[in-house]
Amino acid sequence: MLTNSVDQTLRRRADRVVPGSMWGHLHAGKLPPGFPQFYARAEGARVWDVDGRCYLDFMCAWGPNLLGYGNAEVDEAALRQQSLGDTMNGPSEAMVELAELLVETVGHADWAMFQKNGTDATTTCVTIARAATGRRKVLIGRGAYHGAAPWCSPSVVGVTAEDRTHLCYFDYNDLGSLEAAAREAGADLAAIIVSPVRQERELDQEFPTPQFANAVRAICDRTDAVLILDEVRTGLRLHLEGSWQPLGIEPDLAAWSKALANGYPLAAVTGKDHLRAAAAGIFVTGSFWCSAVPMAAGIATINIVKRERVIERLLDMGGRLRAGIAALAERHGVALRQTGPVQMPSIRFDNDPGLRKGDLFCQAALDKGVYFHPWHNMFLSASHGLAEIEEAIAAADVALAAVAERFGG
Amino acid sequence: MLTNSVDQTLRRRADRVVPGSMWGHLHAGKLPPGFPQFYARAEGARVWDVDGRCYLDFMCAWGPNLLGYGNAEVDEAALRQQSLGDTMNGPSEAMVELAELLVETVGHADWAMFQKNGTDATTTCVTIARAATGRRKVLIGRGAYHGAAPWCSPSVVGVTAEDRTHLCYFDYNDLGSLEAAAREAGADLAAIIVSPVRQERELDQEFPTPQFANAVRAICDRTDAVLILDEVRTGLRLHLEGSWQPLGIEPDLAAWSKALANGYPLAAVTGKDHLRAAAAGIFVTGSFWCSAVPMAAGIATINIVKRERVIERLLDMGGRLRAGIAALAERHGVALRQTGPVQMPSIRFDNDPGLRKGDLFCQAALDKGVYFHPWHNMFLSASHGLAEIEEAIAAADVALAAVAERFGG
Fold first, then answer.
1. CATH homologous superfamily of A309-371+381-409
2. How many whole angstroms separate alpha carbon B142 and alpha carbon B286?
3. Complex ipTM
4. Which of A13, A63, A265 minimises the CB distance to B116?
5. Cα–Cα dist B366/B370, whole Å
6. Confidence band of A409 (pLDDT split at 50, 70, 90)
């Protein structure tokens, strides 16, 4: 990394006018040296940093890039709407069309509402659940990420105890802790909010056991509480009708964002009929929640996902990537774990406190032009085809050799 | 209003797939009959509903439209950035440029951070204030609007008491209530959040008295609490350097959104140096907070506001509109009040419980193609020129005649 690089210069400029030079989940400060902070361009499966280096990208902007950066069909739909109007005195017809499309597509969805952030969607779900039940307690996974508002942020700096008074914590896939949390909430249980897959930073991913998912549903049924599925990260990548549909479990509410409009800013809440009145009775809004451009982009995105069988493609390509890396790891004698959905890859090394192997692996791959992430689940897009998977595996080969050389194979 | 209009058809379709058919501040349900819910197009100072009717618009999307809908220079900057990349693995150079521009432009701003919603910005301000002071209490105006999150929403449906445990209420421009709220907070006072102008629905607007604004600043200075100015609605319309700059009062933090990128979704927090470390220490983020397109639009917007002296134009045109309506009201013998900043008009009739005069006035103006609002402050844009002001005054003439005829002149 050259200290006179454009990225370094921008970081120094940013440091003068942005606290800590950057904030939030896109802060490159926790990535190994050499990872860029600033980006100049993105197209298909690739991103270019401000120094002109190109990477085959497996973060997909941490999820939003589902169809490839700058997907022509989505961008055309957005541009067409932009030429008519975006933020106006009310929504355009696109809002109704998008709500109809979600209702037609998503198993549990009888209605939809729209927001900007995933956090807007999860917070709206909790508010609807409390309005519907007249109760306050929310069961939430310990360590689970459901947004960055004071009630759910992973940091408690600047947060008051009261912001979380009514949260009861359970451990994912641990029925005992789930039942204990439900007992703690007692007659005041409003909702359980849960991720379709356990996807926590610096942990292996974990699919829900059928027992756990069924218990979540059963507790809600037994107590008339609301099951909120947080699809912000998984939505449109795991199962089009809803991530727990293959388990035969439907939530009462779901929160969506990230991939919903292929990078245009949009979030949504979908819900069942019995929560319609409660959803109509709360007050939630934002200056840009009804803007038409992201809704036009969302319609195009969902239609492409259906027509092009995008999820099957992600499964196929993700499976090939996982198999390729597993074979290489065996060949190099490097023990690693690939967990969770193949379309949201996670690569973590055995015996790797401090992530020294993970960091080296990612740095070496980055040198070969492939952008992997050491401690967060990654994302595939429809632009990741056979050639891209081969390119990624070739980079992983070099990177695993580096890990084997440094740490023993 | 035809019941087979496109708008009515869309409302019926929406009613099946959206709770209450619409939500939030853009819900047309509280407007007089005949006001559209859905929009097809917007350009300059005009909006077109889905039935093809065109209105000279004085809501400006409730604020975001500052330079005219579809401003060519802003849209070109946005399109140029869109062709490069929007939502990527990190920000583009535009984030640094925009932060630098805000620091250069806004009196108190030593740094900036970016979000999507005005509520994100106000919530971030409160979180920073609590992180910086280690205290919890926030003084807030009774009836003031600072967003739609559980801690500040105008509705308490689905909200818990604990969401507001640490709020202490004062009445705008009432020094006694302000001092009482500060005493209530005591040594736990973290911040005072205040609007530059009192702008509450169904109330006349009210400028702050110098005594009140100075007392807000003095209490914060005396107690080392944080003065948060909520510029979400006023930003870029009242004073480019900050709305309280003419009073000689600088906040420690300010929240911005709405007009910041002329309709592209963007919010910002600006702050003083002594809060930089606290701002760097909290965790706030969102999937689209670093997207490059709205930042490119924001840079273009601020540059145009400076170069074209937009605020002076809004003052001039707003002053002409106010004077024209005042003269007509006198001529028609209709008593009304126009309050607050002329660039954010408010027209309210004397002796008008239930807003029957206001509703009739707005309906009659709408029939003449001019979109006024009966119970919320309105907004001017730079696209409102002499011809538009004349057109609005001509419609107001007809509308005031209708009010005089129905209710007596």
1. Aspartate Aminotransferase, domain 1 (3.90.1150.10)
2. 29
3. 0.98
4. A265
5. 5
6. confident
Interface subset of A 90-109, CB within 8 angstroms of B: 90-93, 95-96, 99-100, 102-103
Residue B75 and residue B294: Cα distance in Å, rounded?
A: 10
Which of 3.40.1190.20, 3.40.1360.10, 3.40.190.10, 3.40.640.10 would CATH assign to domain B73-307?
3.40.640.10
Q: Domain spanning A72-307 has what CATH number?
A: 3.40.640.10
Q: Does B188 touch chain A (CB under 8 A)?
A: no
Q: In chain B, where are the structural domains located?
A: 6-62+309-407, 73-307
CA distance linking residue A144 with residue A152, whole number of Å: 9
CB atoms within 10 A of CB A354: 7
Interface test with B, best of A89, A165, A258 (most B CBs within 10 A): A89
Q: Do A286 and B148 touch (CB under 8 A)?
A: yes
Probe site for chain A from B57, B87, B100, B269 (most A CB atoms < 10 A): B87
Q: What percent of chain A has pLDDT over 70?
A: 99
CB contact under 8 Å between A20 and B159, yes or no, is: no
Name A19's Cβ contacts closer than 8 Å, sequence gap at least 6.
B111, B113, B271, B276, B277, B279, B280
Stretch B268-294: mean pLDDT: 98
Q: Which residues of A touch B101 (CB under 8 A)?
A: none
Contact A114, A257 (CB under 8 A): no
* Nearest alpha carbon to residue B155 among A119, A279, A281, A129: A281
B6-62+309-407 in CATH: which number? 3.90.1150.10
User: What pLDDT is stored for residue B3 in this prediction?
Assistant: 64
Q: Which residues contact A359 (CB under 8 A, 6 or more apart)?
A: A32, A374
